[in-house]
Amino acid sequence: MVEIAWGTELSTNSPGCSIPLDVGLKKGTSMKDGIPMKHLVNELRNSSNRRSFMKNGLATVGTTTMGAALLTNSPLAFAERGPEEHSGRLTKGDATLLRFAAAAEILETDFWVQYNELGGVQDSEVPGGSGNPDYTEALAVLDEHMAIYIHDNTDDEFTHQNFLNAYLAS
């Protein structure tokens, strides 16, 4: 027999979303032999309606904003080129964006190197430590090729980092 005390909530997978199990109960009472299904269904339906309202509302706002940009003759709406872009040289804004991307790639490469040190394939292609046998064994339970995946991603991140930095240096 299941007994649910007043004030108990059922958590869902959605953060901040819980369903009170004591709907219709008075304080100090409890419910035995389960939860009335109609209460659970109504609570789930209400939370679903709130989610769809938010999703549809955000889609409407986004569509309206894009429509307003297209109705104006703004250069941003039609991606017109400015005079500095006709030269074929890198603009100051483009260089700033590329420097930001390069910094992100440096961080991402560092994260993957650390991940490779724990569970990747250890070879001369990608620098790394000796690996952690327990960690590598646990990863193999998820996917037997995980060590190769980690190694290859680490190698790819070095390629991204080196390409962006070489482009910016040229």
SSE arrangement:
Blueprint: E1 3-5, E2 9-11, E3 18-20, E4 30-32, H1 37-71, H2 75-78, H3 92-119, H4 133-142, H5 146-169
Antiparallel strand pairs: 1-4, 2-3
Structural commentary:
There is one protein chain. The chain has 170 residues and is mainly alpha-helical. The protein contains five helices and four strands; from the N terminus they run ββββααααα. A two-stranded antiparallel ribbon has the order 1-4. A hairpin with a 6-residue loop joins strand 2 and strand 3.
In short:
It is built from five helices and four strands. The protein is mainly alpha-helical and 170 residues long.
The largest sheet is: 2 strands, antiparallel
Helicity range of the residues?
55-70%
End-to-end separation in angstroms reads 74 Å
Number of strands: 4
Question: What strand line-up does the widest sheet have?
Answer: 1-4
Which structural class matches the secondary elements? mainly alpha
User: What is the alpha-carbon Rg in Å?
Assistant: 28 Å
| Shape summary | flat
Number of helices: 5
State mean pLDDT (0 to 100 scale).
72
Helix/strand order: EEEEHHHHH
- Poorly predicted runs are none
Q: Domain count, please report it.
A: 2
% residues in beta strands:
5-15%
Key descriptive features of the protein:
single chain, 170 residues, mainly alpha, 2 domains, two-stranded antiparallel ribbon, 5 helices, 4 strands
